[in-house]
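Annotated sample (chain length 168).
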Amino acid sequence: MRARLAFAGLLAAVLMTAAPPARAVQPDEIMADPAKEARARDLSRELRCMVCQNQSIDDSEAPLARDLRLLVRERIAAGDNDRQVIDFLVARYGEFVLLKPRFSPHTLLLWLIPPLALLGGGAALWAYSRRRTNAAGEGGESDVELTTDEKARLERLLAAEPMPKKPG
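Output written by the structure step:
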C-alpha cells in the first residue's frame, strides 16, 4: 500500500513539473502564420503590462495586456517590422512600456547606477581592507611608539600582576 502511495505521489510530482506553463495568450489571439506568431510572442515578452508592471504582456492576463497583444499582432499583420511595432507602442504609451529600457541620454543614469554601485562597493571594500592592514601593521603590532611615561607605567603593571597560568 505504501509503495502504491509513494508511486502515485512521485507520478503526480513528475506530471506537475512536466506540464507546460500556462500563458495568458488566448487561442483566438494566435496568428495563422507560425513565423508571424513567433515574432508576436517575442515582441510580447519585451513589452510591459501597464497594469501588472512587473510582467510582460505575454504573461499577463489583464485586459489591457490582451489589447496590447492584439495591437502587436495587428501591426505585424499590417507588415510592420519589429522596430516599427516597438516604436509605435513607445510613441503611444511611452518608454515605460518596454521591460528593458533603451540606452539613451535620459536613461543613462538607469543603466550606469548598477555598475557604479558595484565599483563603489569594491572600492569601499578595498579601502576598508587596506585600512585594517595598515592599522594592524606587520605582525599585528602597532606603528605607534609609547612615551617614556607610558612605558614606565606598562612595566609597573606587568611587574605587579603575575602571569596567569595556561590550562593544560
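Annotation: Residues 57 and 68 are 7 Å apart (CA to CA).
Annotation: The mean pLDDT is 82.
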